Amino acid sequence: MTESAFKKHQYELTAHLRDPENNPAPEGVEDRRLGIYRNLLYNNVEGFIASGFPVIRSIYSDDDWHRMIRDFFANHQSKTPYFLEISQEFLHYLQDERKPQPEDPAGLLELAHYEWVELALTVSDETINLDNIDPNGDLLNAHPVLSPVAWPLAYQYPVHTMSPDNLPDEAPEQATYLVVYRNRNDEVKFLEINPVTARLIHLLNENATISGQQALVQIAAEMNHPNPDVVIQGGLSAMLELQSYGIILGTLRS
User: Fold this and answer.
1) Nearest to residue 235, comparing CAs of 211, 252, 253?
2) d(C-alpha 129, C-alpha 147), whole Å
């Protein structure tokens, strides 16, 4: 077999394995053997996606689910060969390639992102360095430092409560704010927060020198709150709670 003929044979084989309904098997290969590879490759990918997106899997019927995964398997051009990154490739597929279908729940993309985050943070190589952090520092008068393995998230849909029995038809008026974080035991957890705490986290991440009190005073001004001290005390309570979870590590040493 010439090199060009061998490459043609390879392309025919891989095309058939990805999409056997639309690509005939190459000549000279026993279908029984091909069937082993067809099932092995698809089942591996399908199983990995199902385990990475358990809520989405539970929402779809078997037929609708496998139709979607077959389309992903057949048509998506993955940019990585690593199994751990299949979930991210599936997220890209949903965002950029999948045409909306009647069976798709409202908020599908946000739900997929929410489920993907857990794996992404689990395998993240970010580490915590406490060299320049005072774990007992004054959260109001110094700069509170957020953990690099704590990710603030904002969604239009209540993704953390979505399930087959709880699928909103449209996004509610109030957005959902969450922090996904990896705790001291390397467990990934999710914490729901209110809009004020979400704004506080944003300000602390945005400005590496702002103190907790300065951030809360700014928030009180943005809210046009008649009593800024109420916002400051509420914000301090929120920061102490975040610190108890390891989301805030302490304060920056001066």
Assistant:
1) 211
2) 9
Report which secondary-structure segment, H or E, holds 132.
Answer: none
Give this prediction's pTM: 0.87
Selection from 156, 151, 254 nearest residue 198 by Cα: 151
* C-beta of residue 221 within 8 angstroms of C-beta of residue 191: no
Token pair for residue 28?
A: 């000279």
**Nearest to residue 16, comparing CAs of 2, 27, 1?**
27
List Cα–Cα distances, 90 to 67, 69, 81, 146, 160, in angstroms: 14, 9, 13, 30, 20
Structure tokens at 100: 């909306």
| Beta sheet of 133-134, edge-to-edge order | 133-134, 248-252, 144-146
Nearest CA to 70 out of 18, 4, 112 is that of 18
How many Å apart are CA 211 and CA 233, to the nearest integer? 14
Number of residues assigned to the chain: 254
State the Cα–Cα distance between residues 115 and 118, nearest whole angstrom: 6
Give the domains, in start order, of the chain with CATH numbers. Answer: 3-104 (1.10.150), 133-252 (3.90.930.50)
HSE, side-chain direction, 13 A CA sphere, residue 151: 18
pLDDT tens for each residue of 202-242? 999 999 999 999 999 999 999 999 999 999 999 999 999 99
**Residue 215 tokens, joined:** 């951030």
User: pLDDT tens digits, residue range 70-106?
Assistant: 999 988 988 776 777 899 999 999 999 999 999 999 9
